[in-house]
Amino acid sequence: MPLVSTDWLEKNINKVKIIDCSWHMPQTNRNGFEEFKIQHIENSIFFDLDKNSKKNTDLPHMLTDKNSWEEIVSNMGINNKDEIVIYDNSDVISSCRCWYNFIYFGHEARLIHILDGGLKKWNNEKKPTTNTSAQIKNSNYKAKEKKELVKNKKEIDQNILEKNFAIIDARSKKRFNGETPEPRKGLRSGSIKNSFCLPFSDLISSDGTFVKKAEIAKKFHSTCELNNNIVFSCGSGVTAAVLAFAYSIIKPKYAPIIYDGSWSEYGKYPE
């Protein structure tokens, strides 16, 4: 049950840990934390996608190290056996990346859920929100990295020759085809050789919920041959996680694998 409904969360609101991972593209001039302070689901803890990423790199949203992750999650009061529901106010873009981070650092996948439709749907249904901060009691979280769930540029380059896995890019087709400039400066337009494109937005309905399971399967099957050797990429490793999460809906045994540097790294190099 990777996806949970707003009704399910409302009934189980005191039985789970709730994370608000709202994050917005820089060009939107929106701030997830400022919005969180005004309104969030009761008992929510804020997860800052930018601050909780790797520090000593110029690449955005890279996985942090094990010790830092343990400190981050312990300060959120989350324990290893806690059931977690993650939502955002950004059409699941960032909540899926938070989901991936937890899985990478060893939290049981069956205990981590995404709120279908996020805060947008919750508000549309006039369910209660608050601006009061949750009381947090620090925990002693222990992480266990699953390094097989992340790819680096060297592995991506090797795969162009060896073709051990398929790469699916979550960016728009215009960005993938190099028909429009990249939003980040210093990056060439285009895509990784032999990769495929499935824009993450194709999997999200107008109300912010995921399209039906059958439609997700149809989209993936029309993109490339499917198996468990699939790696997801995007601009900075965020929307790649949307595809990884959607793929886990139709392939429950799939462990999400992401090229963490994504086009923010790959696009810095010439063809």
Structure commentary:
The mean pLDDT is 95. The protein has helices spanning 6-11, 32-38, 66-75, 93-104, 118-124, 153-162, 173-176, 213-221, 239-250, 262-266; strands spanning 3-4, 17-20, 44-46, 84-87, 112-115, 150-151, 166-169, 196-197, 230-233, 258-259. Strands 1-5-4-2-3 form a five-stranded parallel sheet. The chain has a three-stranded parallel sheet with strand order 8-7-9, with helices on one face. It has two domains: 3-124, Rhodanese-like domain (Oxidized Rhodanese, domain 1), CATH 3.40.250; 147-266, Oxidized Rhodanese, domain 1. The chain is an alpha/beta fold. Helix content is 30%, strand content 11%. It starts with a strand and ends in a 5-residue tail after the last helix. The longest helix is centred in the middle third of the chain and has 12 residues, at 93-104. It is built from ten helices and ten strands. Helix 8 packs across helix 9.
The major pleated sheet works out as: 5 strands, parallel
Radius of gyration equals: 18 Å
Global structural class: alpha/beta
How do the helices and strands follow one another from N- to C-terminus? EHEHEHEHEHEHEHEHEHEH
CATH class of the largest domain: Alpha Beta
As residue ranges, the low-confidence spans are none
Query: What order do the strands of the largest sheet run in, or round the barrel if closed?
Result: 1-5-4-2-3
CATH topology of the largest domain, by name, is Oxidized Rhodanese, domain 1
Helix tally?
10
Strand content: 5-15%
Task: Give the end-to-end Cα distance, rounded to a whole number of Å.
Answer: 41 Å
